[in-house]
Every structure is written in C-alpha cells, then in structure tokens.
Design brief:
Keywords: ATP-binding, Nucleotide-binding, Transport
CATH class: Alpha Beta
InterPro entries: AAA+_ATPase, ABC_transporter-like_ATP-bd, ABC_Transporter_VariousFunc, P-loop_NTPase
Structural class: alpha/beta
Oligomer: single chain
GO molecular function: ATP binding; ATP hydrolysis activity
CATH topology: Rossmann fold
Radius of gyration: 18 Å
Bound molecules: adenosine-5'-triphosphate
Order of helices and strands: EEEHEEEHHHEHEHEEHH
Organism: Brumimicrobium oceani
Number of helices: 8
Number of domains: 1
Pfam families: ABC_tran (PF00005)
Strand content: 25-35%
Shape: globular
Strand order of the largest sheet: 6-7-8-3-9-10
CATH superfamily: P-loop containing nucleotide triphosphate hydrolases
Helix content: 25-40%
CATH architecture: 3-Layer(aba) Sandwich
Number of strands: 10
Length: 235
Amino acid sequence: MIKIENLHKKYGKNKILTGVDLEIPEKGIFAILGPNGSGKTTMIKSILGMVVPEKGKVFINGKETHPNGLYRKNLDYLPQIANFPGNLGVKELIKMIKDLRGTKANEDELIELFGLQGYLDKKLNNLSGGTKQKVNLVLAFMFDSPIIILDEPTSGLDPVAMLNLKRLIAKEKAKGKTILVTSHIMSFVEEISDEIVFLLEGKIYFKGSIQELREKTGEIDLEHAIAHILTENNA
Ligand SMILES: Nc1ncnc2c1ncn2[C@@H]1O[C@H](COP(=O)(O)OP(=O)(O)OP(=O)(O)O)[C@@H](O)[C@H]1O
C-alpha cells in the first residue's frame, strides 16, 4: 500500500502540492489525473524520493520511506522523460540498468513483446521517439516489482505498441501488482483503470471509480467528466 500524508511541495514561490493526502491500496490500476502542471509528476517523484517535500510523509507498505532510497528496490518506474546518454546502445543500456539494480530481469520477453529485437545494437540517438519509449517500457517492467509507476507510458506509441502495453498492464495487474499511471489519453485511462485520483490546485480533488466520477459530474464519459471539473474550477 502507498500512503501519502499532508504532502507539501513548492518550487521557489510556486506552490505545487499544498496538503496531499492519499491512500492507494494494494492491487489494481490507479490513474493519477489532473491538468498540465497540477503536480502529478511532482507527486510521483515524491513517492520515489526524487523530490524532497517541505512537509509530509510517504509510507510504502506501512513503512515510512527513508532518504537512503533502499525501498525503491520494490518499485519500478517509467519517467515522463528519460534522459539516458544518446551514444549508449539499447543492449548496453539494458545491461547497465540490470547491473545497477543487481536483480534478475525478464527483458527478453519484453523485447519480443515490443518488437525491439532489431534495435538492440542501435544507439539511443538513432531511435525514433516511440521506439525509445518502448525501450523505456522494457526498463520499467523488466524487474517484476510489486509496485509499478508509469508517467505517461503511452507517449509516442503506435496502435500495436499501445495494445501490447494495455495487455502487459493487465497481465501485471492479474499478478496482484499495484500500478500507478498518469496519462492525458482518456480512452486509455478509461480502459485500464480501477480508480481515478484527480489532482487539482495542490490537493486531491477526487478519488474513486470512473462510474462515481461520471455520477458526480453527470457526464457521459471520463473525458467529459474531467472537462466538466476543469471548466467548473476555471482550471
Ligand atoms: N524542478 C523544477 N523546478 C521548478 N519548477 C518545477 C520543477 N519541476 C516541476 N516544476 C513546476 O511544477 C509544476 C508541476 O509540474 P509537474 O511536472 O509535477 O506537473 P504535471 O501535473 O505532471 O504536468 P503535465 O500534465 O504537464 O505532465 C509545473 O508548473 C512545473 O513547471
């Protein structure tokens, strides 16, 4: 379980999170939504210890996260923008991340799933955006951790890769994992999520099922429900 208590984070004078309280139970897919700049990535990075909040606590499975970051061994993360050196080859990068992590990985299955066999000797600089994203997805899923955090996983993916990603996420959920995901693609969110967490003006504005959100807003689908909240709040 992931628990966030009274999280506050500002960058300079810019207050981003102003008292986030959130409990994510074990097992299931939870979509973190909110307008651009609402602090989704900042919240995710706080869970990962990559952002230091002014105030607040994060607990993973009942234990407060420690600045030494050892708890991250049980978390897999796909960053919104992964900045690996462009002169690294795909195979080299995968090996480097495996060596750093020091645990077993199932990269071969994922390389096949995303059709990356022909790219293993290519340098990252020479890959298209979508192919780079597929490599990042391999890195994010290959360690089989119980918690997976995906920041904009659909970015740049073609429809085949998108279908493969959805199947992969469903398979990982079936293993009992907890998956946190951000996305601006509402059809994707609608298809995969068990619950929605909506961030607005530094706090959790809504947490619940898509059905509950539709009922709360009186709208026909998630896209309209989100648009309704944003318009109502001038966001
Ligand atoms: N390192 C930083 N230094 C200064 N400001 C930052 C930093 N990181 C993020 N911000 C600012 O914090 C705010 C929240 O950013 P964040 O990336 O968390 O939003 P988001 O909800 O993930 O946005 P998006 O939907 O566009 O990905 C933005 O205004 C952003 O410019």
